[in-house]
Every structure is written in C-alpha cells, then in structure tokens.
Design goal:
Layout lengths: L9 E9 L7 H10 L3 E10 L10 H14 L3 E4 L5 H11 L2 E3 L1 H12 L3 H15 L23 H40 L3 E6 L5 H9 L16 E6 L5 E6 L9 H6 L1 H8 L3 E7 L5 H14 L7 E6 L10 E4 L3 E5 L8 H13 L3 E8 L4 H10 E8 L5 E8 H10 L4 E4 L1
Parallel strand pairs: 1-2, 1-3, 3-4, 5-7, 5-8, 8-9, 9-11
Antiparallel strand pairs: 6-7, 10-11, 12-14, 12-15, 13-14
Length: 424
C-alpha cells in the first residue's frame, strides 16, 4: 500500500465519460477533490463505450497517464468513476502511486471531517467495509504462486487473518454504534413525549443548510464553502414568531451516487430525517443544475424511506442571482420559499411557511381550565403551547386560551385528569 504524505497531495483527476451511462458531474468531482485537500495539477478526460476490464481506461490512456504522473510528480490519481479492486491494483502497479475512485475519495473526506464519537465510528465502519474487498492489494508479495512443494506462500493465511481482524473490528464497531443508537432513541423518545414537531434540513451538500440552521437557531455549527462540511446531525429548539415551538435538525448533505456503505453506516444519523414531521429541502438557487440536484436528493430520500414526508423547498443563496427578490410559491400552503440565509433575506417568509405547514390539521385552538394547585400542568402548557390569553376564575383557577399541537393535547387529556377542556 502507499502511505499518504502529511502535506498536501499533488493529484491528477481522470474524468471518464461512459456512453449510455449515468456520469457524475465533472465540476462536482473537482469540488470533491478540493474538499479532500489535494492540489490538482492536471485533468485528463476520456470517453469509452464501456470500462476496460484491467485498467478501466485502456492501454493507450494508461500509458499517457503514467507519463503525466512522472512528469508532474503526482502522489495520487483520482477517478470520477467506481473502480473494481482489481482495476485499482493494476493501476497502482503501473502508475506507482495511490489510486482512488469516487467512493474512496468520499470516504477520505468523511474521515477528515468526522468530529463526534458516533460520526468517527460510522466513517470507520464504512472504510472497513470498503477496505475488506481490497485487502489483496497490500499483500501481492505474499500471494500463492502455482502450488506444489516449495511454492506455497503464506499469502492466503495472512489474507485470512486480516479479513478475520477486519471482520471482528466491524462487529465491534457495529455493537458500539448500536449502543449509541439506543442513546439517540432515548433522546428521540423524550422529544416525542414533549410533543414538539421535528423539522429536518435536507439537501445537496453545500446548499447552505448549516448557514440557514445557524441563522434560525442562533447556533455556531461549522460552516464552510466546501462539500460535506457537516457530517454530524445537530438538533436545536426553535421558537417561531407566533410562539410555536419545534425541533430543528441539521443533517449530512447528500451527493450524487452516494456510496451505499456510507448510507448504511450513517443510517442512525439519517433516522433524524425519517422521524421528521416536515423536511426543509434546501436548494442552491444559483446552481445551474439545481433541478437535477433536487431529483438526486429525492432519490436518496426514497432510498432511506423518507419519500412520503411533507417538504418545503427552500431555494437558498438568491443573493448570487441578479435582481432576484425573496418570495414564496403557494398551492394550498407555501411549498417553495426563495431566500438568502447569508443576507437574512426572506427568513420571515420561511417562518410563515413553517407555521402554516405545521399548523394545518395538527393544532387545536381551545380554552382549558387549570386548578390552582396544578402548577406543573400550567408550566407544561406554557412550555408546549401558544398562550393566547389568560384569565382567572373566582376560586383562583387559570382559564387559558391556547393553541396547542393536537397530539400533545390528546396526550394531556388522556394522562392528566386535572385538565378541563372547553373547545372554542
């Protein structure tokens, strides 16, 4: 195997366009490479009907690529397509440098960005699953020859040992992630008992989700103009101008052809999306391929089982468009909001959209009577409902006119007999 240098790596990007196949965006792959911290010294493009079995690109292009690697003193070659373990091994043997495909590059970025305990475990799990198919690359000097006395090498035993160790590590990480998932479920149950609606920010990577999250919740989640700046989900309570309360979740961004191992590893994080009452689908309004990005995010949502959750499309970064004003599009409720989180433009429209969407069919406007000695019940209502008016009966009981989530009102009426309900 080739060790990664501690400094910035010099890289050649290889863009292979396959005819009659789905190809990733060259601009996006370039951004992925820059996000990984490499220095791009050359970009090689080629078109093929189908991949060449041994090297993916064919002998002619491989010879050209080898000359470029030598001329530019390159440390790593990045392919925008998915390579088989054999193709990676063959390419590294000829080029004498590290070779990564799209999946390997994304895994490398995730490994650099993961900061929480759970995030690091998830990335390591995805890396080990990816590495387990490529173990033979590091042990070519120990491979068996042709069999026979004196010709049997220890390679097979070494590979089996490595596979066993990796398998044991995968089991260990999976158990630890299961425990973390249990802790996450406890937190989720507590939020469900509070009966606060959960709104999850989803969208293509670098669409501005974390900037919007910070602006709405007055938080300081890490923000950068790079792909996969956010890997760990963050939850904050948000109070709308109409006093409605909700939980807002910032999640990992999606990308075209997101590796399946990563989707599986980050499933517990993505469960915040699955449990949401509403999705804010954040879109980079300045992206010329924004409609394609919307379709790709919706495909990932379908893959994880979140396709049926209601959405509001939030077209962010309108400050990058010429002569564009914040506005909203309506069918029944607001379905699309155009804003700039960075410039604080259109946020009031988003608040209105959230209030309308979360209020439709899910809240009750009513009057309740609280006994004078039920201070805990009164505190619960002030915490989880919008208090429109408060009066006092002659005996000291509180008469509250409230707007409250239907599910929380049902929970209180079933579990607390002190609450006397008078519908308006």
């Amino acid at each position: 195997m080739f060790e990664r240098p501690h400094g910035g790596e010099r890289a050649i990007l290889v863009f292979v366009t396959l005819i009659n196949s789905t190809n990733s965006s060259e601009e996006e792959f370039t951004e992925l490479a820059r996000s990984a911290g490499v220095s791009i010294v050359y970009e090689l493009t080629t078109t093929r009907d189908k991949p060449e079995p041994r090297s993916f690109i064919g002998s002619g292009k491989l010879e050209e690529l080898s000359e470029l690697v030598t001329a530019h003193q390159v440390n790593v070659v990045l392919f925008n397509q998915l390579l088989s373990p054999g193709q990676e091994r063959n390419l590294e043997k000829v080029l004498q440098c590290k070779v990564l495909d799209r999946t390997g590059l994304i895994l490398d970025i995730f490994a650099q960005r993961a900061s929480s305990f759970e995030g690091k475990l998830q990335v390591e799990l995805a890396q080990l699953k990816h590495l387990s198919t490529r173990l033979i690359r590091g042990w070519t000097h120990l491979e068996r020859q042709k069999g026979g006395i004196g010709l049997r090498g220890p390679g097979e035993t070494q590979l089996e040992t490595d596979r066993r160790l990796i398998g044991e590590r995968i089991k260990s990480i999976s158990k630890r992630l299961a425990k973390v998932s249990q802790q996450r479920n406890l937190g989720r149950k507590a939020r469900q008992q509070a009966q606060l609606p959960i709104v999850s920010l989803v969208g293509y990577t670098n669409a501005g989700k974390s900037t919007l999250f910070n602006h709405l919740t007055k938080s300081d989640v890490f923000v950068a103009d790079q792909l996969f700046a956010t890997l760990d989900s963050t939850l904050r309570r948000l109070v709308l101008p109409n006093k409605m309360r909700l939980i807002l979740a910032d999640t990992v961004g999606f990308v075209q052809q997101l590796p399946h191992d990563l989707i599986a590893a980050f499933r517990s994080t993505l469960e915040e999306t699955l449990q949401a009452d509403l999705l804010l689908h954040v879109v980079d309004a300045s992206d010329p391929e924004r409609q394609l990005r919307i379709e790709q995010v919706n495909q990932v949502l379908t893959d994880i089982g979140a396709a049926d959750i209601p959405q509001i499309l939030v077209y962010n970064k309108i400050d990058r468009l010429s002569n564009y004003q914040s506005h909203c599009d309506r069918i029944e409720n607001i379905t699309k909001v155009w804003l700039s989180a960075l410039k604080d433009t259109g946020i009031d429209i988003l608040y209105e959209a959230l209030a309308n969407q979360l209020s439709s069919g899910s809240t009750n406007h009513c009057q309740v009577r609280i006994p004078v000695n039920a201070g805990d019940l009164r505190a619960d209502l002030f915490e989880n409902a919008v208090i429109l008016q408060e009066q006092y009966a002659d005996n000291g009981d509180s008469l509250l006119e409230i707007q409250i989530a239907t599910r929380h009102l049902n929970f209180l009426t079933k579990t607390d007999s002190r609450l006397q309900l008078v519908k308006i």
